[in-house]
């Protein structure tokens, strides 16, 4: 694993970024892959079997990004709603492709049982640039709140608002990568004028439960399914994963609403955030995508059985 730089190359240590530093950071971001080729083309393939709606458009001049959601074609008001989100952090590849793979391979398995609402790539600008933030150096996954500074987050909240209180389940698909430690955490510290404290990256899959409404049985059911396809992250020497106590194998808890995280945007009794580790020598990209897909299926199955 690469080590983090001694100091981030933008800004003055101890001083939060201003407009000049944000502009310098933005000037360093380059498109590295195509949202249209990787994501929109797959959504087009799904149109014959699912309803697709454009729920927003990001105007990041000169680029414009349509935001798409995929819905069950047999939507019925008497069925529970299942929300699946991916790509809130655009660089977390398996979150995007795992969501699409779930719809393509298993979406119709739940026809007539749940209403599926899937937003596979919440942050397409960041997807193309393999980054955590949007072009304003704002993290969408700390911005799911009223008056959100991130249009990605605001658009998703508008989409979900009509079904917010009818959701049975929300599963938000993420990754934890080596670049969290080498790029994104140092950038965050520099942006906010704080010292960077080196940490570790857990090797394996884990889940983040809601500390305000923990659902241990639900989380453990998802872990049990995923460990059939990839390994589960162990606790570190302090009994923690990324600084949080491990409450069950592969499970930690966050106060989702307090942190304005994506998984807080519904009143669903069952919520979880997945985290895979694509940089592990023990996991392939295909395994990571499959782990996300298996997690979604296991989460739906448990929620339906315990509603």
Topology:
Layout: H1 19-27, H2 35-46, E1 51-60, E2 63-71, E3 81-86, H3 93-106, E4 115-119, H4 124-129, H5 151-160, E5 167-175, H6 178-192, E6 206-210, H7 216-226, E7 240-241, E8 244-245, E9 251-254, E10 270-276, H8 285-305
Parallel strand pairs: 3-4, 3-5, 5-10, 6-9
Antiparallel strand pairs: 1-2, 2-4, 6-10, 7-8
Helix pairs in contact: 2-3, 3-8, 7-8
What does this structure look like?
With 307 residues, this protein is α/β, with parallel strands linked by helices. It is 32% helix and 19% strand. The protein contains eight helices and ten strands. Strand 7 and strand 8 form a beta hairpin. The model has no long low-confidence stretch (mean pLDDT 96). Keywords: Hydrolase, Metal-binding, Zinc. Belongs to the peptidase M14 family. It comes from Microbulbifer rhizosphaerae.
């Amino acid at each position: 694993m690469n080590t983090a730089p001694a100091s981030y190359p933008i800004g003055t240590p101890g001083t939060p970024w201003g407009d000049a530093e944000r502009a310098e950071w933005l000037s360093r971001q380059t498109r590295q892959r195509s949202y249209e080729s990787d994501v929109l083309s797959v959504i087009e393939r799904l149109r014959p079997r699912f309803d697709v709606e454009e729920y927003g458009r990001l105007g990041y001049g000169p680029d414009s990004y349509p935001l798409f959601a995929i819905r069950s074609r047999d939507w019925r008001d008497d069925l529970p709603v299942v929300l699946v989100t991916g790509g809130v952090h655009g660089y977390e590849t398996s979150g995007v492709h795992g969501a699409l793979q779930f719809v393509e391979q298993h979406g119709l398995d739940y026809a007539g049982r749940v209403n599926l609402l899937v937003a596979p790539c919440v942050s397409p600008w960041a997807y193309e640039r393999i980054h955590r933030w949007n072009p304003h150096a704002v993290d969408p996954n700390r911005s799911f709140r009223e008056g959100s500074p991130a249009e990605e987050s605001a658009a998703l909240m508008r989409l979900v608002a009509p079904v917010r209180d009818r959701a049975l389940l929300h599963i938000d698909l993420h990754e934890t990568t080596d670049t969290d430690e080498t790029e994104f955490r140092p950038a965050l510290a520099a942006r906010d004028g704080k010292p960077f404290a080196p940490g570790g990256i857990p090797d394996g899959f884990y889940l983040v439960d809601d500390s305000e409404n923990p659902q241990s049985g639900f989380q453990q059911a998802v872990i049990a399914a995923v460990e059939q396809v990839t390994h589960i992250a162990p606790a570190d020497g302090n009994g923690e994963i990324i600084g949080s106590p491990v409450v069950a194998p592969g499970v930690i808890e966050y106060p989702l609403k307090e942190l304005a995280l994506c998984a807080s945007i519904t009143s669903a009794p069952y919520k979880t955030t997945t985290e895979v580790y694509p940089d592990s020598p023990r996991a392939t990209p295909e395994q990571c995508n499959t782990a996300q897909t298996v997690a979604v299926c296991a989460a739906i199955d448990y929620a339906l059985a315990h509603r």
